[in-house]
Amino acid sequence: MTKSxxxxxxxxxxxxxxxxxxxxxxxxxxxxxxxxREIKSVASQLGYIPNFVARNLSSKKTRTIGxxxxxxxxxxxxxxxxxxxxxxxxxxxxxxxxVSQEDSEKERKHLETMLxxxxxxxxxxxxxxxxxxxxxxxxxxxxxxxxxxxRTIDEKEFSSVTLSNKDGAFKAVQKAIENGYSKIGHIAxxxxxxxxxxxxxxxxxxxxxxxxxxxxxxxxxxGFGKKDGYDSFMKMHQENKxxxxxxxxxxxxxxxxxxxxxxxxxxxxxxxDIICFGDSKLNDYLNPSISCVTHNxxxxxxxxxxxxxxxxxxxxxxxxxxxxxxxxLLLKETCIKNIxxxx
Amino acid sequence: MTKSxxxxxxxxxxxxxxxxxxxxxxxxxxxxxxxxREIKSVASQLGYIPNFVARNLSSKKTRTIGxxxxxxxxxxxxxxxxxxxxxxxxxxxxxxxxVSQEDSEKERKHLETMLxxxxxxxxxxxxxxxxxxxxxxxxxxxxxxxxxxxRTIDEKEFSSVTLSNKDGAFKAVQKAIENGYSKIGHIAxxxxxxxxxxxxxxxxxxxxxxxxxxxxxxxxxxGFGKKDGYDSFMKMHQENKxxxxxxxxxxxxxxxxxxxxxxxxxxxxxxxDIICFGDSKLNDYLNPSISCVTHNxxxxxxxxxxxxxxxxxxxxxxxxxxxxxxxxLLLKETCIKNIxxxx
DNA sequence: GTGAAAGCGCTAACAG
DNA sequence: CTGTTAGCGCTTTCAC
Lengths: 343, 343
Known about the structure:
Two copies of one chain form a homodimer. With about 350 residues, the first copy, chain A, is α/β, with parallel strands linked by helices. Chain A folds into three domains: about 5-50, Orthogonal Bundle (434 Repressor (Amino-terminal Domain)); about 65-165 and about 295-325, 3-Layer(aba) Sandwich (Rossmann fold), CATH 3.40.50; about 165-295 and about 330-340, Rossmann fold, CATH 3.40.50.2300. Chain A is about 45% helix and about 15% strand. Chain A is built from 13 helices and twelve strands. Chain A has helices at about 5-15, 20-25, 35-45, 50-60, 75-90, 105-115, 135-140, 165-180, 195-210, 225-240, 250-265, 295-315, 335-340; strands at about 65-70, 95-100, 120-125, 145-150, 160-165, 185-190, 220, 245-250, 275, 290-295, 320-325, 330. In chain A, the strands form two sheets. In chain A, strands 2-1-3-4-5-11 form a six-stranded parallel β-sheet, with helices on both faces. At the A-B interface, α4, α5, β2 and α6 of A face α4, α5, β2 and α6 of B. The first copy, chain A, binds a DNA duplex (16 and 16 nucleotides) through α2 and α4.
């Protein structure tokens, strides 16, 4: 077990001070080209590995950002994490990952840990029912930049990057109307979550624009997971309140609907059509694949990361920003009434 | 921007030394029940958040482990990460995540970063062509425990947790034989990777046991991703060298085969049957779903984490261990020749 | 039980 | 350009 070598070891060997070594290794302009080369060569020859813990303590920067997501084994978040991860790597930042598992308390704990680890910033997509509003304020007061993505809190004093939730939902529902549907239901997300609320708004707006009255029998509010879609469908089905088409608040919800429908022999899209907000790698393997509102993951992740970076670099004099990433309607094998009709 | 409060602030407020506060907060037996309660109450009232950077520097422990995987947006690794993540959380460890993207150099960089961050240990699944053998030795010499999982290096002086690769492959191929196939091909992984090599061994052994001669026309070596499966199938197809059934080294490879087959009008499982090592959430949505060798993700992740933990706690006097996680054959809608025959 | 002293390895600020 | 001084906030002896 070799003792790990320090700045001092290099300094002694070269008969310079450890400050000089430190500067040389960090390419500080103070040090001459020659010295630097010399020092670096000795460092690598000795197998020097800087101690970031010490560096971070003294510099009060960690070049580490915390990323908190509600789930990870989910194509949407896995993809985003991978993208954020790439951005971080390119910019020489490290990532501490945490998963809240939709649990507000765990989320809180992770945030505390990240503060303790002195991350330079946090990117977070909050849990379904996050109750950490006050804690986000504490973080802010400490001067730690925080960027909310996808699932945000409502306070406008926090930077956020979201999808164009309302607009995307609007486009989806409008397409359903265009395709001849008028009995349009919505398996919606919790209204206290921005994505639930805004997609619901888009849904309502599209109906309104076409003069269709909202039938509350066809609207159910719950979570964003597969099970929520499954349960909601089953409820509507049992109560015999199925519309012609359901607009699902997320892809997993649509997946749950599809699974439930299959189970009780409701054919999609013949007996019940669906469309949803959000795509997945899985979609192309579904039968039928689901027409959906989609987005560019890389663009989304980069926006969040760059916003955080900007905020980190700006320090106090940063004004919060709220970015919205454009969404597109992607037509696949559902939401196709006209097509069926003309066959 | 509030100044962050330190041990000292609490100490002053209570007129004790910061050592006492430090001990109380860490439940050190030195401190009396009363004092501890008092101190903790003041700490929380002041909104004290410990500075792990300082703590880590002085204690030389970080309660952080590094996890390196080749990819993340892949059901196998996403699931494992989530499971490892859960273990870590339960045991009060933090995770630094890194993705090598199958790139040996990135892998190396990540390892260095983790050493610099002074992680207490590393769990890694190496890149397809990792050339960091010497670096793993450096890590070991530094006394940093490292556990390889799934994709390991061959050196026996490193702890590892793998699936029962040879045995699983054997079972899969034997099932193909049982079902009446004799022309059995293998889209194999690189032979220099343990999973490629061992699954290939299982394949050969199953053939041998039944007295079937291996036909090298039907065996192709490449990587572990979807594209590799796609390309391999295309090659065999163009050269008109397709067997009756292909055993794919991983699920993504099988997926690639399926996609390619569809493209050129080869029906699976009628014209060409398949079976593979490894399952995926996606599998149930495939048509046909693929019979495969599967495992228990939680068991796998826990084994890796616990082994690392054991190693961390044991310090120098730890002897390397090599665990193998049992695999099972899961029959779905492929590898069904007999079923077809008897129809 | 409590605390004073020493230092983890590094960097910031300043002086030469 | 180079080096000295002084910590960063905490834990670890070890003495009381």
